[in-house]
Every structure is written in C-alpha cells, then in structure tokens.
Amino acid sequence: MKKLIVLLTVISIIAGFQNYVLAQCEPDIINCIDTADPGQICPLDLPDGATWQPYEQVVTIIPPYEADLGIIGTVDIVKIVIDTIENLPPGLTYEANAEEFYADTAYCILLSGTPTSQGIFSLSIHVIPFIDVNGTPTAFPEQIDDTSLTITILSSGINEYENKDLTNFTVSPNPFNVSTLISFYSKIYGKAELNIIDYCGKLVFSEFIEYHQGNNAIEIEGEIIAEGIYFLLLKNDKYFLTEKLVKIN
C-alpha cells in the first residue's frame, strides 16, 4: 500500500498560490488507472525543467480510499485538505481543478511557470487528511512529508536574469476583475513590449509602452481578456519581467 503522503504529494503543492483559483486542466482518466494500491499519480516522475524556459505539466491524481497511518493502523480516507508546502522551485506555481480531493475520483493539477533557479527541489508537503470516525469526517493531525517527490531544474545555458534597470515588478490586485495595476521602477527611460499569454501559449494581448525614470504604472482593463490564468511578460531589448495574472468574474 502506498503511503498517504506519497500519494498526495502532487495534490498538496497547490498551496503555493495564496489566492485559490481552479486550474484549467482535465485529468487523464484513460491512461491513469488506479492499480488498487490504493490511489494513483500520473506521471509518477515529473519531467525535468530548465531555467528561463517555460514549463507546463498536467498531473492526474486518484486519491486513496484508505491509508496506513502507523500506530493508528489502516483508516478510511474521506477527503484531503491542503495546509502548506515548502521548497517549491522558484518561478513555478500549481493550481488544482478542485478545492477538496475525495477518494476514488480523478483530479488534476496544472504545474506551470518559468523556473529561475537550477537544482533538485525536495518538496516539503503539509496536508490534513479527514478520516471516517463512526461515519463522521474527522480531521487527523497534520502530516508532513519531505522526501517523496522532487523536481529537477537544469541550467538552460541562458544567463540568469540580473535586471539592473527594471525592479520592483508587482501586479495588484491579482486576481482581478475590473482592472489591475502593473507597477515597476526604472533607472532610465525606455520602451518595452507588454504581452499576456494564456496557458496554451497563445498570445491574447500585446502592446508597446514607454516608461520613464522612476516609478511606472500600467493599468490593464479586465474587458481585454476572459476569465482564466495567464502569463504576463514585460520585455525590452535587454531584460524581461514575468508574473502570473489571474482574471476572475
């Protein structure tokens, strides 16, 4: 029987995004089959990523209906609630297609972003399982696992981003509805291209802007894009700034 935390490692990493948004992904119910361990994760090994290269991976999860919790013994698992996660690769984020995960139902998470640091990242996952106690879902104490899943980020050979001119890049509010404000500081006058890209890699909005020395702000109207999760890219001939952008209704 797989350990509870091993089966739930990939699920748990959605906690890296504070403002929860359901992922735009579909579980692979054809190729990902519960082998009666119980529970299943597909793929078991996440593909390697590379610094400063876009990364996207859909992971399918079938949560277990029971688990061995040591001295407690084997218990029925009703659902899983996420607490926290530590040691995520910088530049990557996770979203799931559901807020709670129930046994024997296929779910998915979307891992995406642009890694900024190379290395092997062993995730430290904190989850709270709910077990069946006399027919009542009851929270079990927090479970922690820091060895079951790793993500390897390799060097792409591209010089790591050391922005000398553009700093303090923020987007607020984010998620947003009516409008949001992109802010940054520049040491010099310049021109840049602002792109909004969806999770399929499609360019949905682009414009050229001029910025001045000091603090700069660019307003994005919500009507230009549909509800969803996007990749925001501000670039000039030397540097680029990136951020995730979430539009809600």
Structure characterization notes:
By secondary structure, the chain is mostly beta strands. The chain has 2 domains: 4-154, Sandwich (Immunoglobulin-like), CATH 2.60.40; 166-247, Sandwich (Immunoglobulin-like). Helices cover 4% and strands 51% of the residues. The protein is built from 1 helix and 20 strands. It has one helix at residues 4-12, and strands at residues 40-42, 49-50, 55-62, 66-68, 74-86, 92-96, 101-102, 107-113, 119-122, 124-133, 136-139, 143-145, 150-154, 166-172, 179-186, 190-198, 203-211, 214-221, 228-235, 240-247. The strands form 5 sheets. Strands 4, 5, 7, 10, 11 and 12 form a 6-stranded antiparallel β-sheet that branches. A hairpin with a 5-residue loop joins strand 4 (66-68) and strand 5. The radius of gyration is 20 Å and the shape is elongated. The termini are far apart. 29% of the residues are buried. Mean pLDDT is 76; it is low at 1-20.
Please specify the SSE layout and strand pairing.
Blueprint: H1 4-12, E1 40-42, E2 49-50, E3 55-62, E4 66-68, E5 74-86, E6 92-96, E7 101-102, E8 107-113, E9 119-122, E10 124-133, E11 136-139, E12 143-145, E13 150-154, E14 166-172, E15 179-186, E16 190-198, E17 203-211, E18 214-221, E19 228-235, E20 240-247
Parallel strand pairs: 2-13
Antiparallel strand pairs: 1-3, 3-8, 4-5, 5-7, 5-10, 6-8, 9-13, 10-11, 10-12, 14-15, 15-18, 16-17, 16-19, 19-20
